């Protein structure tokens, strides 16, 4: 074998020398330690300033358990009171912008899902960059996060931090007296002739779960516009604008299948013959979504800017994410943190993200664009 050239030998020696210096050079060690101390001191100054402000104002998307999830912050920082308000999804953007147009800058943080920050707050330049507010090393260390990076919703990758990534596919319920669940391995099985006239769906043109569900189906490559077109033009699907009405029709056997329905827990608690398909086991590529409360944004002109930064860092910390994930998980809501260094016990094992699995990430500017879906639905539902 030909011996290494002089140039190669010199390069190897130079690398070894650099590694030695990095390991043992007191000056370099002091530089690293100094950076850590600077970070710690900045964090402590921010906490002290936040205590003087005494409050953090957090706007929430209306959801069960969300209030309890953010109130845990007060236990960690008893000198900082959480002030909060919440609205349904359709009302969040209009309310926030109406307040700001009236000169009322009331909120520090928006914990209200990805769509409102992206489609309303971002175009209005109502947010400050969130990256400079991330002060704790355990947050800035991307190895602690899924896929080895921070996930952002906005095109700049700087304003809407996505901290939840749950396996999320649209609900499909069935009447146990009319349907054998073993017949279904795919959403495409809904198109079979035997289910024609036997499907009810909560209108996907409505804000919230139905609209998000339609957007997921639209963006899953195995389904897309072709599936939605066939579903709404070939199956005689009936639309309802109310969860309760659609679920009642399903329970009494008027329809066999219910798409985009919710609140099945109340029906099963009453002993009604309804159940939910395990759609995450089907052959379609599963989607990952932050859901209605899985992203956070820092409002500009915030009334309590230091408290806002403390709240954001607490929420995204290992402790904050473990607490949020535990409290938010319920029978009808699955929340899995994007952090990979916390226990995932609250999330059912079959529905946790699996390393190496291919997923469709919904929280991107392209896949969060509702307009192509709205246009398609308007055309096919009219037909």
Please give a structural write-up.
The chain has 383 residues and is of the alpha/beta class. The protein has helices at residues 6-24, 26-53, 66-76, 89-101, 115-121, 137-140, 209-219, 224-234, 243-251, 264-269, 305-316, 318-328, 371-382; strands spanning 55-61, 81-87, 109-111, 127-128, 151-152, 160-162, 166-167, 172-175, 199-202, 238-240, 257-259, 274-276, 287-289, 295-299, 360-361. Strands 1, 2, 3, 4, 5, 6 and 14 form a seven-stranded mixed β-sheet that branches. A five-stranded mixed β-sheet has the order 10-9-11-8-12. A hairpin with a 7-residue loop joins β5 (151-152) and β6 (160-162). α2 (26-53) packs across α11. Residues 27-35 have low confidence and may be disordered.
List its salient traits:
five-stranded mixed β-sheet; seven-stranded mixed β-sheet; alpha/beta; 40% helix; 383 residues
How many angstroms does the end-to-end distance come to? 75 Å
What's the SSE pattern?
A: HHEHEHEHEHEEEEEHHEHEHEEEHHEH
Q: How large, in whole angstroms, is the Cα Rg? A: 25 Å
Question: What portion of residues is helical?
Answer: 40-55%
Q: Estimate the mean pLDDT confidence.
A: 88
- Strand proportion, as a percent range, falls in 5-15%
Count of helix runs: 13
Protein structure class = alpha/beta
Q: Low-confidence parts lasting 5 or more residues at pLDDT below 50?
A: 27-35
Shape: globular
What's the total count of β strands? 15
């Amino acid at each position: 074998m030909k011996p290494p050239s002089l140039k190669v030998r010199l390069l190897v020696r130079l690398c070894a020398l650099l590694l030695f210096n990095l390991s043992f050079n007191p000056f370099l060690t002091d530089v690293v330690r100094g950076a850590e101390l600077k970070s710690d001191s900045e964090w402590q100054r921010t906490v002290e300033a936040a205590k003087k402000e005494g409050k953090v104002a957090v706007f929430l998307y209306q959801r069960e358990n969300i209030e309890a999830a953010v109130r845990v912050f007060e236990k960690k920082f008893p000198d900082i009171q959480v002030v909060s308000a919440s609205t349904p999804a359709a009302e969040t953007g209009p309310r926030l912008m109406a307040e700001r147009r009236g000169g009322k800058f009331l909120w520090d943080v928006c914990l209200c899902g990805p769509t409102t920050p992206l489609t309303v707050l971002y175009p209005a330049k109502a947010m400050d960059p969130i990256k400079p507010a991330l002060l704790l090393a355990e947050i800035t260390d991307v190895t602690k996060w899924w896929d080895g990076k921070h996930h952002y919703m906005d095109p700049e990758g700087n304003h809407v931090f996505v901290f939840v990534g749950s396996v999320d596919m649209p609900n499909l319920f069935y009447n146990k007296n009319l349907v054998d669940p073993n017949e279904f391995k795919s959403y495409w099985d809904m198109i079979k002739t035997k289910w024609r006239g036997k499907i009810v769906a909560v209108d996907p043109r409505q804000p919230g779960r139905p609209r998000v569900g339609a957007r997921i189906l639209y963006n899953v490559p195995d389904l897309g516009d072709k599936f939605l077109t066939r579903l709404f033009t070939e199956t005689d699907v009936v639309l309802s604008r109310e969860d309760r009405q659609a679920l009642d029709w399903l329970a009494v056997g008027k329809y066999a299948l219910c798409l985009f329905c919710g609140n099945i827990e109340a029906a099963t608690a009453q002993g009604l013959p309804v159940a939910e398909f395990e759609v995450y086991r089907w052959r379609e590529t599963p989607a990952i979504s932050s859901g209605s409360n899985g992203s956070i944004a820092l409002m500009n002109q915030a009334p309590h800017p230091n408290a806002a930064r403390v709240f954001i860092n607490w929420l995204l910390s290992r402790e904050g994410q473990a607490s949020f994930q535990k409290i938010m998980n319920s029978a009808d809501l699955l929340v899995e943190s994007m952090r990979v260094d916390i226990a995932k016990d609250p999330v059912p094992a079959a529905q946790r993200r699996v390393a190496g699995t291919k997923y469709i990430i919904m929280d991107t500017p392209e896949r969060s664009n509702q307009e192509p879906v709205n246009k398609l639905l308007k055309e096919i539902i009219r037909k």
